[in-house]
């Protein structure tokens, strides 16, 4: 649909209703169930976690992020091959001020099943290593052990049993992915709002002390140069 020039509040309300109705039709008729579910989740998060809180957001309440940190971020629902959803990202800013509302990251992914480090496309991606987030892995293992005890102490009909089982499944999936090995998708470097950061936002969070090695950061710098500037730097 084409939106006419919006001159009044009533014009805005009418057009917004039409846009939202068209969006609903597209979600229900043109997307498969998984896509529709993910987009619906994202629209709710976008409204509840981001739009409603944007004016009150204060980046100075977060920790100071350093080059080589890894953060867990919500990249949203995107199109095509753009990375989206909850992702780990590598911070590459040389000096990101605590007062800055944005940060530049490189999205990370885990090795796929049966994928080896030598299988990745090294024109666009860089293998970072196996199980590099040791503190996060230890945190997840401890949480899973705790949930196992909670599950043992409850019956299958208890609401707490169901909730603990679901949370355990999520943690186990994340743990298995972290142990597969991490890949930096250098070609998808982007600057995002710090509102998208889920973790770490406090100094005690499990990701807060991780810094990628200087050698790997230099390799990433070289790949950025090749991809976007056609040059390399000495390591």
TrEMBL record:
<dbReference type="InterPro" id="IPR011067">
    <property type="entry name" value="Plasmid_toxin/cell-grow_inhib"/>
</dbReference>
<dbReference type="Pfam" id="PF02452">
    <property type="entry name" value="PemK_toxin"/>
</dbReference>
<keyword id="KW-1277">Toxin-antitoxin system</keyword>
<dbReference type="InterPro" id="IPR003477">
    <property type="entry name" value="PemK-like"/>
</dbReference>
<dbReference type="GO" id="GO:0003677">
    <property type="term" value="F:DNA binding"/>
</dbReference>
<protein>
    <submittedName>
        <fullName>PemK-like protein</fullName>
    </submittedName>
</protein>
<comment type="similarity">
    <text>Belongs to the PemK/MazF family.</text>
</comment>
């Amino acid at each position: 649909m084409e939106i006419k020039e919006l001159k009044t509040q009533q014009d805005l309300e009418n057009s917004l209703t039409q846009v939202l109705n068209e969006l609903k039709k597209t979600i229900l008729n043109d997307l498969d169930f998984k896509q529709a579910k993910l987009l619906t989740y994202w629209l709710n998060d976008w409204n509840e976690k981001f739009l409603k809180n944007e004016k009150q957001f204060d980046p100075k309440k977060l920790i100071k992020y350093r080059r080589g940190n890894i953060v867990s971020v919500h990249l949203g629902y995107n199109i095509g091959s753009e990375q989206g959803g909850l992702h780990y990202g590598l911070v590459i800013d040389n000096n990101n001020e605590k007062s800055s509302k944005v940060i530049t990251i490189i999205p990370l992914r885990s090795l796929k099943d049966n994928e080896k480090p030598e299988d990745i496309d090294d024109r666009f991606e860089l293998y970072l290593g196996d199980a590099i987030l040791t503190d996060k892995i230890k945190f997840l293992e401890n949480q899973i052990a705790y949930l196992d005890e909670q599950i043992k102490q409850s019956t299958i009909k208890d609401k707490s049993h169901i909730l603990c089982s679901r949370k355990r499944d999520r943690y186990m999936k994340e743990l298995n992915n972290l142990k597969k090995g991490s890949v930096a998708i250098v070609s998808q470097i982007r600057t995002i709002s710090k509102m998208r950061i889920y973790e770490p936002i406090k100094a005690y969070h499990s990701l807060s002390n991780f810094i990628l090695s200087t050698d790997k950061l230099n390799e990433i710098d070289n790949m950025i140069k090749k991809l976007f500037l056609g040059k390399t730097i000495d390591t």
